[in-house]
# Entry
Amino acid sequence: MATIYDVARVAGVSAKTVSRVLNRDAPVKAATREKVEAAIAKLDFVPSTAARMMRSNRSGLIGLITGAISQTSDQPASHGLPDLVIVQAVQRGIASSGMTVMIADTGGQSDQVAPLVQTFLEHRVQGLIYAADFHQRVALPLVPKGFPLVLANCFDDAGTPAIVPDDRRGQHMLVERLIRAGHRRIGYLTLGRQMVATQLRTEGYRSALAEADIAFDPALVVLAYIDDAKLGSKLLWDAIDRLMSLPEPPTVLCCGNDAMAMRVYGILRSRGLQVPQDVSVAGFDDHRIIAETLYPPLTTVELPYAAIGARAAERLLSLIESGPEEGADAAPTRVAGPVAWRESVLSRTPVVDFKTQGRERP
Amino acid sequence: MATIYDVARVAGVSAKTVSRVLNRDAPVKAATREKVEAAIAKLDFVPSTAARMMRSNRSGLIGLITGAISQTSDQPASHGLPDLVIVQAVQRGIASSGMTVMIADTGGQSDQVAPLVQTFLEHRVQGLIYAADFHQRVALPLVPKGFPLVLANCFDDAGTPAIVPDDRRGQHMLVERLIRAGHRRIGYLTLGRQMVATQLRTEGYRSALAEADIAFDPALVVLAYIDDAKLGSKLLWDAIDRLMSLPEPPTVLCCGNDAMAMRVYGILRSRGLQVPQDVSVAGFDDHRIIAETLYPPLTTVELPYAAIGARAAERLLSLIESGPEEGADAAPTRVAGPVAWRESVLSRTPVVDFKTQGRERP
DNA sequence: CGATGTCATGACACCGATGTCATACTTTTG
DNA sequence: CAAAAGTATGACATCGGTGTCATGACATCG
# Structure
């Protein structure tokens, strides 16, 4: 590969002048510039970032780590996709600042994190992002303190800048919307209890009910997911059985995610119940390929992975530019996705101003 | 950041000795090594790839480009996921050789390809992979000729090494399997005709029929996809109407992809037809979250994205090591995914040895 | 025992850019 | 018109490692 000296020789100028043409950081006579540009084209010269970096100490690189980071291992290998959406969004955000993203995946081995970080540091990345495959608490990997680092779709106890989905608000908005559509008995089929998302969403579910002065009925909330296809299926059938045979059965079933909602469609149909005429169904994730393809299309809440990735990139860039920010550090940034309202939820002629009525009772 | 000279000073040795400790490329006394290692640890020294690269001229970097590459634009923005699975597989394959992957996404702008390639060249990547979001023909971007380049999930007319899914064989295997299960009237709801995959799969469909001496009936093959939600839905309804009201209707419907199969489930149910008792259904892609979650689980063909990514990485590494390979260059490498046989297809008590019977007829 | 070889280490140049400073040539200005 | 200011360019050191070669200390061998 040609060097700046080759170009200088061919163009009959000094290397420094070629550098000036490349960087436009000092005036160069038009005639000289043309000679240099001709030489560059002729030699297929491409400047070396490595050499450049040696002086400037700025690599223009960002490191992105995906896959298992901490040894939780109580969680199953995920569906494997959401973090990739984050990757894409991060890449776009970073690219818009002229930097380049290097990626590495732990392949599920949390002990791979250390060597990956080392490699990134050797490349002198100017910042690191870690993207998790589902909303979780992680134990921090080893980076030099003060090094720009942002967590996406996860958080830690050390106050590292983090961007996470606002599960609480997402579920709250969904339930609120269901109530506005006239639903009062709202069933909730949850994912595993130990998941961060489940806890937060349950809070959102309850707060929305509370805001509308609807009493929380524990019988309406049922664990309906375990990590085993066969048992999981039975669990879901039983959960629905239990809910639908309540004295006052729910008019809508909120599901822990869209895939569960898809199964619920099938189960309800097998029981002769039509969606949404007999029971409404709502999901979570806005996994488009499911939500839009199901018939009827599924009402759900978007898990804003793209927004999370974009925010993470943004945050990291600002950390790099301005150094560690002062305030507002402790809590993760929560990004709420909108409710995607589709035909799987029936609007029941609502008892107008039910809420006010309730309040007016002494 | 500390340099090798700082380490040398602290350890009381020369820089070169530190280098030797780092690279283990020459004998160093145990006592000296320990002093050096202590100094490295004390200073948090991390060697600079950039400086290293200047002498060795090997960056240890691979460039990966995703998103729109050529200005076809007749194809809609894809579902956006498959290429990310390829990204992950490529990353794993490359990482196993100790190299690092840099990624860039065109964000749908094919005119972004040139600057991205330029950036990669500036970083002195040792090879490039382009991963497309669906099986397609692409027009080559500008890379120095002889530069290691592999296409994944796409191919060009210039004979660039390419890894693509074997759509023909995939569909062939599926149909062959359906025939073995006793099906003779096999409906086929295709994706857009201009898609490479559609053409190849139709060939596979026909060849499997031919092998079994089943006459090809054009009435059984119907275009059922256009890029418009509303019109697409109507098209699919009509297609199914047409197929099911044939004098001899199909006993199984092959769908262009799993999402279509999911819709077909819904449509069939609305018509009072049970899957698979009344009609069997098969998909294509093995989009797990759909295929495994649908009830009944969907028989489909895996689109081996992970394998494609892995093969692409492998191929690129061999190109880098051994230089341009000689023979077997022209045709893309085709990777066939297995048939995922699930409960959406009914095994009809087959007319035993129908095939032989057919042959024996004069 | 001196010649030869191996081990352990250091001095120094070099990779390919850019920053600093010097210099020659122009143009502006009092 | 000379001094001051601006323009265009080059020489050279430098960034942080590694390759080459030299050197001194021992071990081995005929």
Remarks:
- Chain B is about 40% helix and 15% strand.
- Residues 188 and 221 of chain B are 5 Å apart (CA to CA).
- Confidence is low (pLDDT under 50) at residues 73-78, 353-362 of chain B.
